[in-house]
Amino acid sequence: MRKKFGIDIDGTVTSPASMIPFINKDFGLDITLDDITQYDLNPLVNVSEAEFAAWFYKNEPLIYAKSPLAQGASTVLSKWQKVHDLIFISARGSHLLEVTKKWFDEHNLGFHHIELIGTHDKVETAKKHNVALFLEDKHDNAVMIHEECQIPVLLFDTPYNRDPLPNGVVRIYNWNEADEWVKKWLG
Q1: Same domain for 88 and 105
Q2: Of 3, 92, 155, 180, which alpha carbon lies 20 to 30 A from 76's?
Q3: For residue 99, what are the domain limits?
Q4: CA 25 from chain center: how many Å?
């Protein structure tokens, strides 16, 4: 039976380390993904929130254009696309839609819909599209989507999302695990 999957892009379809080379270069740092133990990057860069927000806004298009694909994502998503509707729901602003679509094309990733909502609150968009499953990397998003939509959420493990999880939010470590979980879930 065809299902609708809600899928985050950054840190889920893209590598969670995508921003690190840009941060290291522009802020003179030498951090790795293991150094990022919270979603908020501001404490790592040691500049004001306004300065970091301005830097991020200026660099977003390049960061997103150059983001590496998460290992295994292409194979699993290509398989799922044939039998499910893939609805990509991202906190990226809508002004980044062309950059995002170009990145999907360059990586030969198909999609049924991409929605860039400009906020981390994905609950209403998940409800609007009536998704049956969500894949995410941000802990509080995963918990909120599960609780508000009453659907399972697969949380891709990263150093910044290791808080405890409620039942219904499942920590996974790679795309192959996501695929195996989905096979069992669909029975």
Answers
A1: yes
A2: 92
A3: 4-15+69-186
A4: 23
CATH of the domain at 135: 3.40.50.1000
How many independent structural domains does the chain possess? Answer: 2
Q: Do 139 and 176 share a domain, yes or no?
A: yes
Are residue 10 and residue 26 in the same domain, yes or no?
A: no
Please say whether the dihedral angle defined by the alpha carbons of residues 45, 13, 158 and 150, taken in this order, is positive or negative.
positive
Write the secondary structure of 116-178 as one string of H (helix), E (strand) and C (coil): ECCCCCCHHHHHHCCCCEEEECCHHHHHHHHHHHCCCEEEECCHHHCCCCCCCEEEECCHHHH
- The 4-7 sheet, strands edge to edge: 113-116, 85-90, 4-7, 133-136, 153-156, 169-172
Q: Give the SS3 label for residue 15.
A: coil
Which pairing describes strands 153-156 and 113-116: parallel, antiparallel, or unpaired?
Answer: unpaired
* Residues 4, 71: Cα–Cα separation, whole Å: 22
Give the Cα separation of 148 and 34 in Å (integer). 30
CA separation (Å) from 91 to 10, 46, 94, 102, 174? 9, 24, 9, 17, 21
CA distance 15 to 6: 18
Given a cut of 90, whether residue 147 has pLDDT beyond it is: yes
Bridge partners (DSSP) of residue 88 are 7, 114
43 and 73 both lie in a single domain:
no
pLDDT in tens, 78-98: 999 999 999 999 999 999 999
